[in-house]
């Protein structure tokens, strides 16, 4: 697409960006005005392709959420419902001021290392990456196709979850595998949650009143999926997820790091098929596998009541986290800040406390009273004497996608 072809979108004064995050059975969306960063509307359409029980929860501005039941046979039906909800607020896809649609795309492989204007060729290349993200990329492609069909004149921008990690040096990206086999099958470490790591590392620098280029940050994105990254002067140099989002930290339902020979063993001795192993490691492991529960609030509550399985699940989770903090201190050499984000990182004082306890030798000391304060905006929880600033920084992947989308469209317009 030439820069000229971008201009028709919403015209030069258009400052709104619609962000679409299409998962395998859901669509998260947000309309942002980039003139002032305001969230104009947003919501979630769920249970796509799952028969009954589909619904859309839509919030306009700072109003109350409104919920509607729907049958969503496919993503096209869900996206049409999203467009209708927006139209009801006078914010439909044909309303003036819409500059572009920004799409979260999970896997960009080695091909896409920056936000990219969608063309037919780009869509073909994203489709070709499906073997690396079989659950996610097809849903992302469908979202783009439907949005394009609704507004063919509007720029559509793909923002890749892997892109922020494209700067990983080869020694961090390459597995110690036979080089020819690894290269033939695109086996390497890509990393995920990139928009979150980028947003949080930059926001942490802002919280410290410093230029991102000056600070080294360890970001701990602890949600249902969890990943850590080491960001040196704004550049990602290491991250815990690998070829897929299965590697690294203990997560809600994913095992994170495991000896790969466990897979051979369970196949040969346990008779588990490849699909059964995939399901085991991605959906029935992690906190859920350890104690039957993947909500950290419930695990902390059960542990406090003396539940041994919940106690072990918490300890395994924290131990892995501490190993990564230590490793990333070594990777970075000098650490200026440690930032906690996402559902667990932003909300769980017990997790932050246990993850950082006894790390004074690494310059990390958390103030218990600051840590215990209820969630609020970005804030410091480190003790005054802590050499490393410890921060809680709410992530905002949708805003970051909107920002990157708008910046690209703006640049293209010249
Ligand atoms: P996310 O994937 O970022 O939406 O995070 C979802 C996870 O955050 C849930 O599975 C919960 O385990 C966790 N979470 C949310 N609120 C809290 C809280 N107040 N305390 C501990 N964990 C929480």
UniProtKB/TrEMBL annotation:
GO MF: acetate kinase activity; ATP binding; magnesium ion binding
Quaternary structure (record): Homodimer.
Source species taxonomy: Bacteria, Bacillati, Actinomycetota, Actinomycetes, Kitasatosporales
Cofactors required: Mg(2+); Mn(2+)
Organism of derivation: Peterkaempfera bronchialis
A Pfam match: Acetate_kinase
UniProt keyword annotation of Transcription regulation present: no
GO biological process: acetate metabolic process; acetyl-CoA biosynthetic process
Protein name (database record): Acetate kinase
Primary localization class, coarse: cytoplasm
Positions contributing to substrate binding: 104
